[in-house]
Amino acid sequence: MIVGQPIPFEARTQRRIPMASASVQAGFPSPADDHLERSLDLNEHLVSNPAATFFVRVQGNSMKDAGIVEGDTLIVDRSVAPKDRQIVIAMLDGEFTVKRLRKRGKRVFLQAENPEFAPIEISENQELTIWGVVTFVIHRPR
Description:
The protein has one helix and eleven strands, in the order ββββαβββββββ. By secondary structure, the protein is mostly beta strands. The protein folds into two domains: 2-10 and 48-138, Umud Fragment, subunit A (Ribbon); 12-44, no CATH class. The strands form two sheets. Strands 1, 2, 5, 6, 7, 8, 9, 10 and 11 form a nine-stranded antiparallel β-sheet that branches. A hairpin with a 2-residue loop joins strand 7 and strand 8. The longest helix has 5 residues, at 42-46. The chain is globular, with a radius of gyration of 18 Å.
């Protein structure tokens, strides 16, 4: 899976979106509540460290079983220390990718979440840089 160039967090807008005071029922419908409670800034809820955060759009389907599909936007935090089993944005030999980081002893792998893709074991001859940890995925309705 290839990801596009990172979009710096600083490029964000300051637009606040109205938030309804009622919840949405996922079961039986409830009576509508016609007033708005307050505005909601998604940056406050999705970004914990603005100086270290960037967004990136996904291309490909190697992470589909983790719920990450083509066209999704990933929110990535560079200040989070990458740990085993976390989904990361990595640069491997000059190419960006999104994969699950796996560590087994001294061995390091980038693992896809699609059985069609084999895990990539990182050899000492390869250059791996972890750019950040994926903290949120924004999906477009399909």
